[in-house]
Amino acid sequence: MKAITYRAYGGPDVLEYGDVPEPKLGPDSVLVRVAAASVNPVDWKIQAGYLDGVLDVVFPVIPGWDVAGVVEQVGVGVTEFAPGDEVMGYVREDMVRRGTFAEYIAAPVRTLARKPEALDFAQAAGLPLAGLTAYQALTRALEVKPGETVLVHAAAGGVGSLAVQIAVALGARVIGTAGERNHDYLRGLGAEPVAYGDGLADRVRALAPDGVDAVLDLIGGEALQLSPALLAEGGRLASVADGAVLALGGRYVFVRPDTADLAALGELADSGRLTVEVAATFPLEQTAEAHRLNAAGHTRGKIVVTVP
Q: What's the whole-number mean pLDDT along residues 171-197?
């Protein structure tokens, strides 16, 4: 089968397109014919070696954790899916070795859920990692409740745009930070936008004089550091981008595969309360270009690689 691989740490130039053996199918896995896989910052950060102290990496690596596709075959112990089922998944295993930028992947059933009918394959591929990150942060780390006010930093990005929609679906009022060119986009998602930069704290306080109930930080740095002062009494803080949140009394979130959470995201999509913005698509052989665009930042929505 065709796949993207890399044999050593480095930038986009280490990515190779070529033939690799088809994956073996374990008893609790399904063979998925990949239709699309989305790019996430963690993909190129692992590839650059930034997470070498955290994750075991076995070269050559097929990168990618997000996938949408069609089940071709099921393992002997699988009852949840059948050939022909359309699925999506956050296929993260205990080591980095076989990823989703390939024609086929053997995915453990614990990493998959059925693809929402309301989303095409490109949109569905953009949902798992980003959607699970937002969902788990909002419902578990922050425990957002109806009527609360939530501040989302970097609200127009891949995770942020989904976090806004999920928070709205939970019944929260949402304030989202973003560049001014994305303010109308955020309004369309149900958020009240505020601009980045000097005076950010004052702009948030103007909208929430008594403070916000929860802050979801997706960017780290200065935005995270000013967040505790924006919280109401008893407010909660979580970050997916900066471990410094722990010293500020907040929680750090690292997303986990979870079939039930994926299914909940699918239900939100099929009910019309959640959609996925696809910023750009690239064919599999141009995955390096997709990584370059993702690493440049400031992309609204998701970057997706499609597989013929």
A: 96
